[in-house]
Amino acid sequence: MARPQTSRAWQTADRFGAVASFLCAVHCAALPFVLAVLPLVGLEFLADHRFERAFVVFACALALLTLVNGYRRHRRPASLMLAFPGLSLLLLGVTVAEPYPLALHSVLVTCGGVLLASAHFVNLRLDQRPPHVHEPGCVH
Asked: Rounded distance, CA 105 to CA 107, Å?
């Protein structure tokens, strides 16, 4: 049975998701260090919790859409196994950890973003691999 071809739009969405997740991780890792500088350069909106929540919701929605679609094509769960803990950490970081010290929030969201970006990269890689064909004598 032939596997459906990955459309360029899905690959672009996956790449965009990987970049967005990675930028989210960098943003959250750097935020405690640059918090005082942001207003000086006109970027204080980057420290706003509403901006962060909106960005996390966008990254999570894009990840679910692209990674589930990728799984439907390649039937390999590796990207989802990275994505679900990443999504959990991101959502915990912007909800439950908000009243706690900034360091906890930053660690949770940074780790979640890195896992989510990794899931997108794995998904792209899996889309490029040929599917496994079961033949007589195959042990898998």
From this structure: 6
Rounded distance between C-alpha atoms, residue 29 and residue 31, angstroms? 6
Instruction: Specify whether the CB–CB gap between 62 and 16 falls below 8 A.
Output: yes
CA atoms within 13 A on the CB side of 93: 28
- The whole-angstrom separation of Cα 13 and Cα 85 is 20
Q: What are phi and psi of 122, to 5 degrees?
A: -65, -45
The band of 68, judged by pLDDT with boundaries at 50, 70 and 90, is: very high
Helices 78-94 and 8-34 pack at an angle, to 10 degrees, of 40
pTM: 0.71
Q: What is the pLDDT of residues 1-52, one digit of tens each?
A: 444 455 777 778 777 777 777 777 776 666 666 666 666 677 666 666 787 8
What letter represents residue 119's amino acid? A
